[in-house]
Amino acid sequence: MLLPNQLTVLRIILTPVFFFLFLSGEPLLIQISALVYIIAAITDWYDGWLARKFNYITEWGKFLDPLADKILTSAAFLALVLVGILELWMVSLIIFRDILITGLRIWADYKRVSFSTSKTAKWKTFFQMAFQYYLLLIYTLKSFDSLNREYTRLFEILFDKDFIYYTMLAITIFTVYTGITYFISNWSLIKKIIGYKN
């Protein structure tokens, strides 16, 4: 197995480790979970860089890499739901949209069909990841007792419920919108890969 694919598999393995540590309720384990998440995120960047630089592009990698990305980000969003930061219905919509589109892209690659990725979809990913990093970072910093005591008011501001709710709501709406436009712009190709006939 090529190194990029090994890194992708490592990312999948690290996901449940992060999930378990993050939900442990133990400050030290929560802090370790942030490190695990960072390592997993770095493998995402590094395996892509290796694949492009040395042309380590395989059918297995095309299938596994986007799947590993969604597994990691979905696990992180679900973890944030379980600690009471995010709303389940919003995260469910995001996960459903992303897994559906990822599944279509994987199937399209298998069928040798290329889907276009819009700039809005790339912005969707950026906003999702930026907000996820923000929440994980603040939650991890808050787990340090000394920081939590000294900066209690600051953490209250950074974790303002209305700010989190409406920011996540905007991201959810934007994510659903990009999913709808993705289907519209690629509908003829989608019909082709699923074998639909008029």
TrEMBL record:
Gene3D superfamilies: 1.20.120.1760. It is a multi-pass membrane protein. Its EC number is 2.7.8.5. One of its GO terms (biological process) is glycerophospholipid biosynthetic process. Pathway: Phospholipid metabolism; phosphatidylglycerol biosynthesis; phosphatidylglycerol from CDP-diacylglycerol: step 1/2. The keyword Transmembrane helix applies. It holds the Pfam family CDP-OH_P_transf. It comes from the Bacteria. It is an enzyme of class 2 (transferase). PROSITE patterns: CDP_ALCOHOL_P_TRANSF. This is CDP-diacylglycerol--glycerol-3-phosphate 3-phosphatidyltransferase.
